[in-house]
Amino acid sequence: MKRFAAGVLILLFMAPVALAARNPLNAIAKDPYLSALVIDADTGKVLFTENADAKVYPASVLKLMDLFVILARIEQGALKLNDMVQVTPEAAKIGGSQVYLDPKEQFPVEDLLYALMVQSANDAAVALATHVAGSKEGFVALMNQKAQELGMKNTRFHSVHGLPPSDGQEPDVTTARDFAILCRELVKRPEALKYTGTQSKGFREDKFIMRNHNKLLTQVTGCDGLKTGYFQAAGFSIAATAQKGGVRIIALVMGSKDRKVRDAKASELLAKGFTIVPPKPELMTASSQSLPAQQKQVTTSKGASKPAPAQSGLNTIQPKAEGSVTVPQEPGVAASSSAKDSGWGKFFIGLGIGFILFLVFFIGAGLLMKKRNRILSKYKNRP
Q: In this structure, are residues 153 and 130 in contact, taking their beta carbons and an 8 Å threshold?
């Protein structure tokens, strides 16, 4: 009996210690959100901010840093998209959103990047991290290094997937302002938007169809990213971006209590950004429509390009296409000139010729009359 009582006492004393080791997170989510930020991706100018420096748990939005680190490795030539990644037992055991990797499998880096961004697969995150850095811990170090280089001063990563911390682990912490820095760097890379903008994608030879958690891809015109995230204490978060009229806007909504409210607010803030930043001409469209004739290129029969002949101002006459409408010329200039040449000019030429002939006839007749008068005068003067 005494031993039983002693055991109970030991358990009672150990319970607070175990709870302390677990250190559960306090819920930070609010209605409509804990923090929000909108920026112009081109200039970095802040267009809207509300509590943007509040500490938040990024949840799966954190996977954007996974993508950034891996793309940087690919740019450096240290990693290739077709490199095969062996699935580890550790990766296969990760729960939450996943593509159900098996330790017997291996996949190209690119396939796992799609799984990371489209399905938000935690097992893909662990598999990629282990392949790139040798361990999750090594990859987390790379994530924090990149955060420091980018100037994300209030960010600290402790995982590669953004799940709630396990026993004795610290939570991932960031701010909307810090994550806007990362998002701005990512949207400079078209290859990043290729993954974040994909709505659905087949995996494992299309046996598993992945579907993007970002509903704004189908709800907001021009939306091509970036990432959503959620766990209970963190609430619902999203890093969203869209491009329209030559302008790209990035909006972050962090720590919302409701997914639909988060999406509605993100959509609203993107629209707000587009009303603040005036549209820019689409470079390709504008250049093809407004390029002066003398700057347009003409392809020769030999395949070379040369400038097209320059054309003069308003009165240049273009060949008339079949069924086209003739544009009136500027009044009193070319039209009147051609009219004179075709009508009055001929009249005056004919009049001049007639006048000359009349003079010749008149002079000739005068000479003949004078000669006739001389002859008549001779006959009159004879005896």
A: no
pLDDT tens per residue, range 104-161? 999 999 999 999 999 999 999 999 999 999 999 999 999 999 999 999 999 999 999 9
CA distances, 158 to each of 58, 234, 253 (Å): 11, 15, 22
Token pair, residue 349, equals: 């030429």
Confirm whether 120 is a catalytic residue.
yes
Q: Which of 79-93, 116-130, 297-311 has the lowest mean pLDDT?
A: 297-311
Angle at which helix 176-186 crosses helix 63-76, to 10 degrees, equals 40
Q: How far apart are CA 265 and CA 7, in angstroms?
A: 54
Determine the Cα–Cα distance for residues 367 and 207; give it in Å rounded to an integer: 117
Whether 189 and 248 have beta carbons less than 8 Å apart is answered as no
Which tokens in the block code for residue 295? 């700057």
Q: pLDDT, tens digit, for every residue of 183-213?
A: 999 999 999 999 999 999 999 999 999 999 9
Q: Phi-psi region for residue 340, left (φ > 0), alpha (ψ -120 to 50) or beta?
A: alpha
> Residue written as tokens 């990693």?
79
pLDDT by residue (tens digit) across 240-261? 999 999 999 999 999 999 999 9
Q: Tell me how far apart the alpha carbons of residues 251 and 138 are, in angstroms, rounded to a whole number.
A: 30
Q: What domains appear along the chain, each with residue ranges and CATH number?
A: 23-281 (3.40.710.10)
Residue 164 CB-half CA count within 13 A: 14
Task: Name the DSSP class of 34.
Answer: S
Q: Tally Cβ neighbours within 10 Å of residue 126.
A: 25
DSSP state of 343: I
The rounded distance, in Å, linking the Cα atoms of 163 and 126 is 12
Q: Which of 35, 97, 120, 237 is labelled catalytic?
A: 120
Distance CA 256, CA 32 (A): 6
Q: How far apart are CA 128 and CA 117, in angstroms?
A: 12
- Active-site hit among 60, 97, 159, 267: 60
| pLDDT tens-digit readout, 21-44 | 435 789 999 999 999 999 999 999
pLDDT in tens, 317-328: 333 333 333 333
Q: Under a CB-based contact definition with an 8 Å cutoff, are residues 186 and 68 in contact? A: yes
The one catalytic residue among 63, 136, 146, 227:
63
